[in-house]
Amino acid sequence: MATDVGRSQNPAGLVQVFDGSADTETDLDVIAIHGLDTRSPDTWTWRDRGQSSGPVNWLQDSAMLPSIVGRARIFTCDWPAQMLQKSIPTTLEESAEFLLQTMNHHLEQNTQAGKDRPVFFIASCLGGIILIKALQLSDSPPLVTATRGIVFLATPFLGTAFKDIPYLSLKAWGSFNDQSVSALMDYTREPTPGLDELVCGFLDLQKDKHYHVFAFWESHETSLLGKIHLAWLFSCRAFLVCRIFLVSSLIFYPFSPLPLIFCLWLSGFRFCGPRQLVNESSARAQILERQRLNRSHVLMNKFRDPGCADYKQVASKIEEIVRKIREGTLLKQADAWICDGYYTTERLKISRLSGELVPLDRCYVNLTILQQSGQDAGRSREGTTTTSPFSLLARQKVEIPDKTMQIELASIFKQRKGPGDRMVEPRRILIRGRAGVGKTTLCKKIVYEFSRGAWSEWTQLFDRILWVPLRNLKLEGRRGPVYDFTLLFHHEYFGSRLDLAEELSRALETKNNRTLFLLDGLDEVSQDLTGDGSMSRFLKELLKQPNVIITSRPSANTPPHLDLELETIGFHPDQVEAYVERAFTTPGTGKVDLNRTKEVLSFLKGHWLIEGLVRIPIQLDALCYTWDDFDPESVPNTMTGMYEAIEQKLWKKDVVRLQKMSEYQARGARPAEVQRTVGNELRVLECLAFNGMHSGVLDFTPAHRDDIVDIFPPLALPLDETLAQLSFLRTSDSSTKLKDREYHFIHLTFQEYFAARYFVRQWKEDKQLEYRFKPQKYAAPTDPVSFLRAHKYIARYDVLWRFVAGLLNSEKDDETLRFFNILEEPPLDLLGPAHQRLVMHCLGEVSGDLEIRERLETRLSEWLLFECQFTGETKLATELEFPETALSIAFDKGPYFTAMILRSLERRVIIPSGILAFIAAQFEHKDGNVGLAAIEALGAQSALPTEMVTAIAARLERKHGGVQSAAIKALRAQSALPTEIVTAITARLEDEDGGVRRAAIEALRSQSALPTETVTAITARLEDEDSHVRRVAVSTLGAQSDEDRHVRWAAIEALGAQSVLPTETVTAIAARLEHEDEYVQRTASRLLRSHATHYYGLVSGPSAHFLYRSVLRESFHEQQSWYVIDKYFHVSSGEQTTNTGIHQESIDFKVMISKVQPPNMPDLLASLQLCSN
């Protein structure tokens, strides 16, 4: 027998009779509600009339209900239930309100204790009516939400047999006892409209909330006058006695009044005799599931022992309902099914190239804001950027953006400024990212962190996250005439439970939709965003969901009505260090190999390009994995060299997986032996990579594999199985069959590397290029040299040409020289900067001497000096690949050029050590402008040598405010400063120059542990009213705009929305290139680029001079090139290239260029030989 917890009412009316299992946490509250004119515990207690056994309370007996409900607490709930009352009669509303207050108090106690348990009610007779009325009154969610199941024991939903008792008899009995009849008796007679409405409302609630409900009804009769102690008068025994007396009187006393009395009694027997108090129809409300018990009404809530047949029926149903409650509602079952069956450890795992798993709580996902409001958008419109968009690191999205633009993944739903500076709470978010920078990791981390409740802001907003890989929508089985959310959920999550899919679909239709969709890979279904098919319609509906995170590669079009656009970026420097440390930590022991960690980090600091590239997670993983195979004497110093080393290590791993070597053989094999063994597999990768580059394909489908399978000798394994074993490829979904999988390279740069290998192979062997993917967009040259000439200025081939130069450099010098000579041959860029960038990028991959290097670097310095003169600034110098030799040549041309170039270096993420030494030497330059520019150049460097930091700190004492501000800005970038330098900065808080004071505070803000006196000095600056006024003034001035100016460029931009413009309109826009407002010029130029087919006509017209110089100016900032091939005039802008046939033989590009080119521009006329032929 369970311990009796007493009858202390806590809260009022609620008494705990069983406290659950002592050694486990309770997860359910069972609450029993008695009926009319009774109370607990009597209602629930069986008493044997023969006194052969003691009373049995089945709610409390450990062998009865407690054994059924297990980890549950059991309560009884008393409410004012007297049938005859001395006060004003109690109404249904009053009784229900009492129950509601009792339950709300109980539920509040649960919440405060952090135990929001579901509630299961056992309601006897009229207690069931009181309960459903309380649920109706509970317009606040606690009781309605907590209730999960109800068993009704003879509840009169449609009245009782009391309707047959003359109501006057009850009132007479009440008057005899000086009492009134409870108003609740109205609900035991004929069903009233109010009761019908109450029952219908409950049935709707039960359906909406998915309550588990069951009703029991009695099969035996009950005396209707039992409550007024006259039941004996109309019992069956009395009927038998009356008949005997009647017969006797008729025999012995023919004229006796007894027959008349018997007739009167018989009439009363008809109304007041034993009846079925609550019949089946009333107990089931004509709809509920029900079952009868072979007992009378008064015994429906009492059972002798566990062996009682009726008890077994009730216990069985209670056990079933409790089990379902613990399983949850259909919606909760759906959520649990997804969390347990779909978001499995296997599906969420992140593997290193070595095969080791990466803990998801240690995965880094860095985001930066792309879509910003008002002022920021305006700045981007003005065209100012902090770093060169042409550098390899910028192309790979691994440069570290401004801190104000970075955002933590866990806080992306926080309120922030939106368009028009209005505050928005982002709910529709797009996250872009290139292949390999962590979009898959992003999705897995979101699911993992949400599932374990790590991000409280998310769990407060959403009940569930639905991760939908959009690529699955392309599967053949989903291309039916109709597609909807139910089918999506059925296909993705509930293959065998259509009911769960339907329930989850219904949850989306509620007003308070707390479902967050994680739509992964919009770019993979971009073809379905147009059209009117069933899948197109469904995809558009899916993208319209109110709560959605969409991931995509940069190529996809932006969906409408987004609140926030983000972009995944690479690791931060501290994350690189932490990753390297973990990569060389011994599993199990946790011991870090400090020597190897130090070697890798030292290597990265000495190789700026590789240091930038390894901010891409997969690149860093590959470097750590292959580190032990690097020759200490020949560690690669170029990107190509690093990729070659990584390739060799991964082939050693894959040759075993391909079953072409044993582990022992692979361990001792030379790189050339391994590469010869996997020669066919290597050619497959090269062919896929090159054809993908040419056709713009990143994901290789079964159809793509069919396009190439016939050109290779038989592989050791079938093609599908071969690709599954290669470390260079990954599949979007490893759960699909091999033949149905799509593959992509582990990072875009690996596809570019293998495409370059294919090109170099065909180049060296003098073979034609093969285009295998169908259909071909255009007829491309098959000769490698012709292909190079046609594609050398197209932006997406930039990294490929870098790899080609590097791979040729590892062969013979004459091949490298031939490559550069062909680069220098026509067609050449008629503007110039695009060609210089191509040359510098390829030179960066060539180590050692090259016959024409000196000439190429000298020409680069000439272009650098020309840019300074022509634009008043330089972008070429901001590129990491710009050769140090070319910079040194330019530095010798005088202080004007030196200062301008030094200031441009501030926009570099990394400055090579040789250039750093030169910068330090300029601190004491006799030209103060050069010294100031040298300090400004270091403003973005976070880990300067100690001696340089000390030299900068010494500039804090200079009286020149500009030097002081620049010095503090450079110091602010340092992650940790020596104490003496912190003291020197603190002294500047009292400087007369407000700019110095402001910069000093910002410099100290980056330090995590400041001395007390420094903190005090900063606090004192809170009263610096002048500084505050100046800051507000600057902000105010920055918000001003030239309204007329905006009207001018807005008018031009409005024309840009037109797909086709008349020639006269284009001419009018071209005239704006002469406008005195530089921004209007750039806006006009940008618009003309979108109608580049008109360029050919404009270069021979009156606007040629302004058009050429405008585009030339922009070509230093953006990817722009003009060139002529086979009588076609090509305009290349970013990824877009247009061409126009040359029909006027009279146009002489030599003459045209000579007329419009600026003074001091390096000679371009030698590049126009093709045009004169």
TrEMBL record:
Residues 427-556 form the NACHT domain. This is NACHT domain-containing protein. It comes from Microdochium bolleyi.
